[in-house]
Amino acid sequence: MKSFSQKTKEYLCKQETGAVCCCEAEMMGILMFAGRFKGTEVRVALESRESIGRFAELAQKSLGVSVEVETAKSSYFCVLTHKKFFEIIIEYEKSADGIKENVMNNECCRDAFLRGAFLGGGTIVDPNKNYNMEFVTPSKRICDGFKKMLDSLNLGFRTVEKKGTFVLYSKNSDIICDALAHMGAFSSQMEVLNVKIEREVRNDITRTSNGETANMDKVITAAIRQIRAIEKIDEKMGLDNLDEDLREVAILRRDNKDLSLEQLGKQLTPPLSKSGVNHRLKKILDIAEGL
Fold first, then answer.
1. Regarding beta strands 75-80 and 158-162, do their DSSP bridges make them parallel or antiparallel, or are they unpaired?
2. What residue spans of 122-183 are helical by DSSP H?
């Protein structure tokens, strides 16, 4: 069964490749995160045929170079030897942030580079389990440059070093949704949003239920205290010796242990407000304490 991350990449690989500048940016996003130098060549290895096929298509459209795709066990790879790849890699290397200025300045190209980076070195956890998106690279310079690009898109990813690799990650559902939207993974974005909304609704229901339970506990605790006071008065001096307004409230409370103050007030003749009922019950409590 395919993971949420694999499904997201598969969806991205089906998107239109766009303008030449965006094809180049997306290709370089893949290359910078999945490319490994080996002597005078660069090897790009990806986990799916769709992803490596996407890379080959991008290379053809942006550089006019054909790439041969090979298979090795459970991964797919291609070996880059054409000088055009090295020329564009050098262009990126000469850039201040390791990413060409025109990519940093054009939102369409930044989105394309982000998409390529995800295909090359990104993962996303199933939102039903947790919120987490990561980009992994062995290069600190690529990590720092990509972090700056993410910041320019208002995507506040954090960075951490793990076992010789550099990881950019976010566990914020809003940031993850925005990142998915920028790279064009709209079906995955909607799935994250749906899970988020469902969780928020469940949490609201739980909070409301907890609040209602707490309020009911308070009503019951207060009622028990009031009834004990009424029983004490009845035993020591008799309820008939109370003033008529207090006697009416006392009898009503004694016979209706589960009613709130507001509900008690509505049953009095004439009806009495919640604060009025509370005032009379306080008097009854004071009388009981004095006995």
1. unpaired
2. 140-152, 173-183
**For the segment 107-159, what is each residue's pLDDT rounded down to a tens digit?**
899 999 999 999 999 999 999 999 999 999 988 988 999 999 999 999 999 99
d(CA 239, CA 62): 95
Give this prediction's pTM.
Answer: 0.70
Q: What is the pLDDT of residues 65-92, one digit of tens each?
A: 888 888 877 788 888 888 888 888 888 8
DSSP 182-231: HHT-HHHHHHHHHHHHHHHHHHHHHHHHHHHHHHHHHHHHHHHHHHHHHH
The dihedral region occupied by 21, where left means phi > 0, alpha psi between -120 and 50, and beta the remainder, is: alpha
Q: Where in the chain is the domain with CATH 3.10.28.10?
A: 4-184
Sheet strands (E) in 103-182: 122-124, 133-137, 158-162, 165-170
Query: Is beta strand 41-46 parallel, antiparallel or unpaired with respect to 158-162?
Result: unpaired
How far apart are the two ends of the chain, measured CA to CA in Å?
Answer: 75
For 4-184, CATH number out of 3.10.28.10, 3.40.50.410, 3.40.50.720, 3.90.190.20 equals: 3.10.28.10
In angstroms, the CA 43 to CA 80 distance is: 6
